[in-house]
Write a structure and sequence with these properties.
Number of strands: 11
Strand content: 5-15%
Radius of gyration: 19 Å
Shape: globular
CATH superfamily of the largest domain: NAD(P)-binding Rossmann-like Domain
CATH class of the largest domain: Alpha Beta
Bound molecules: NADPH dihydro-nicotinamide-adenine-dinucleotide phosphate, 5,10-Methenyltetrahydrofolate
Structural class: alpha/beta
Number of helices: 10
Helix content: 40-55%
Strand order of the largest sheet: 1-11-8-7-5-6
Number of domains: 2
CATH topology of the largest domain: Rossmann fold
Largest sheet: 6 strands, parallel
C-alpha cells in the first residue's frame, strides 16, 4: 500500500484565482489590496514563505510590502512598526514573520496589529476569538490544514486527531479548528512522554514541529491520514517536512507532500484574508461616503 498524495496544488490555485478576481474588483473601485510583511529573522523557512507570498501577491494583483527590520531588531522597534502599519489606511493586512529575535513572543508583539488587519490571526484578540468560536481571521497555516483535509473529503467529525506542536502560529489554532469540526483532539509537544504511542492511536496526525523526519512509520497507525506542516530547509537548498515520507508512505492511508501540500494553501489563504480585509475597509469607506453626502 502506498499513501494517497493530498496535494495542495488544485486548492491553492482555486483560492488564488478567486482572490485575484476579488483583488481586481477592489483595485477598480480604488482600493488596491495591500499586505505588509514584517520580517525580523534570517530563518530560511521564513524566507521561503516570504518569497512565496511576494510571488503569489504579484500574480493576484495584491501590493506586498516587505518590511525587513533585520534579525537583531529590538522588540520595541517591531512593535512600533506593527503599530504604524496598523494606523496606515492604505495597508489592509499585516503579518509578522516568526521566529522572532531574542525569544520575543509572537502573541506579545502581535497585540500591536489592529484586529481588522490581523490577516494571520496572531494577536491575542484574534486567537481568543478563534478559541471562543467567534469570527476572526484564523492563522493561515492552521486554516490550510483543515481546508486541505476538506478539499480531499477527509471526514473530521468523531475522528481522533493528534496535533504535534503547540505554537501560536500552527499547533494551537489547528487544534481549535479541528475541535470546532468535532474531531477529538490531542495536542503533543516536546515534553510529551511517548509521542509514538499518542500519534499511533490517532486517525489523523498533524505534524508542525520543525524537525526533518521526526515522524516515522512507528508514529503512524496503518491507514491514518498524515498532514505534514513542517518546512525544513535542506543543505541542497530544498524543503523537507517533519514526516519521514519514505517510511510513512508505506503505512499511512494518505499524506500531504512537502513541497506542494500545506504550504501553497497557506500562502493562498493569507492573500484571501488580505483581500477580505480590504473589502471590509472599502465597505466602511463607502458607507461613510454615502452618509457624508446624504
Ligand atoms: N507549511 C506551512 O504553511 C507552514 C510551515 N511551518 C513550519 O512548521 C514547523 C513548525 O512551525 P512552528 O509551529 O512555527 O514552530 P515552533 O518552533 O514555534 O513550535 C514547534 C513545536 O514543536 C514542538 N516540538 C519540538 N520538538 C518536539 C519533539 N521532539 N516532539 C514533539 N514536539 C516537539 C515544540 O514543543 P514545545 O512547545 O514544548 O517547545 C513546539 O510546540 C516549522 O518547520 C515551520 O517552518 C510553519 C508555518 C506554516
Ligand atoms: N507568522 C508566521 N506565519 C507563518 O505561517 C509562518 C511564519 N510566520 N514563519 C515561517 C513559517 C514557514 N511558512 C511557510 C509557508 C508556506 C511555504 C510554502 O509555500 N512552501 C512551498 C514551497 C515554496 C514555493 O515553491 O513557493 C510548498 O510547500 O510547496 C513555506 C513555508 C510559514 N510560516
Amino acid at each position: 500500500m502506498s499513501a494517497a498524495v493530498l496535494s495542495g496544488k488544485e486548492l491553492s490555485e482555486a483560492i488564488r484565482a478567486e482572490t485575484a478576481s476579488e483583488a481586481a474588483e477592489l483595485a477598480a473601485a480604488g482600493i488596491p489590496p495591500r499586505l505588509a510583511v514584517v520580517i525580523a529573522t534570517a530563518d530560511e523557512s521564513s524566507a521561503w514563505y516570504v518569497r512565496s507570498i511576494a510571488r503569489a501577491a504579484e500574480k493576484a494583483g495584491i501590493v506586498c510590502d516587505l518590511v525587513d527590520l533585520g534579525p537583531d531588531a529590538a522588540a520595541g522597534t517591531i512593535r512600533e512598526t506593527l503599530a504604524e502599519l496598523s494606523g496606515d489606511p492604505v495597508v489592509h493586512g499585516v503579518i509578522l514573520q516568526t521566529p522572532l529575535p531574542g525569544g520575543a513572543a509572537l502573541e506579545d508583539l502581535a497585540s500591536a496589529i489592529a484586529f481588522e488587519k490581523d490577516v494571520d490571526g496572531a494577536s491575542p484578540l484574534s486567537l481568543g476569538r478563534l478559541a471562543a468560536g467567534l469570527p476572526a481571521f484564523a492563522p493561515a497555516t492552521a486554516e490550510a490544514v483543515v481546508a486541505l483535509l476538506d478539499h480531499h473529503a477527509i471526514e473530521l467529525s468523531g475522528r481522533h486527531a493528534a496535533v504535534v506542536g503547540r505554537s501560536t502560529v500552527v499547533g494551537k489554532p489547528a487544534a481549535h479548528l479541528l475541535l470546532d469540526r468535532n474531531a477529538t483532539v490531542t495536542v503533543c509537544h516536546s515534553r510529551t512522554a511517548d509521542l509514538a504511542a499518542v500519534t499511533s492511536a490517532a486517525d489523523i496526525v498533524v505534524a508542525a514541529v520543525g524537525r526533518a523526519g521526526l515522524i516515522t512509520a512507528e508514529h503512524v497507525r496503518p491507514g491514518a491520514v498524515v498532514v505534514d506542516v513542517g518546512t525544513n530547509p535542506t543543505a541542497e537548498g530544498g524543503l523537507v517536512g517533519d514526516v519521514d515520507a519514505g517510511s510513512v508512505r508505506g503505512r499511512a492511508g494518505a499524506l500531504t507532500p512537502v513541497p506542494g501540500g500545506v504550504g501553497p494553501v497557506t500562502t493562498a489563504l493569507l492573500l484571501r484574508h488580505t483581500v477580505r480585509a480590504a473589502a471590509r475597509t472599502g465597505g466602511a469607506a463607502a458607507r461613510v461616503g454615502r452618509e457624508g453626502s446624504g
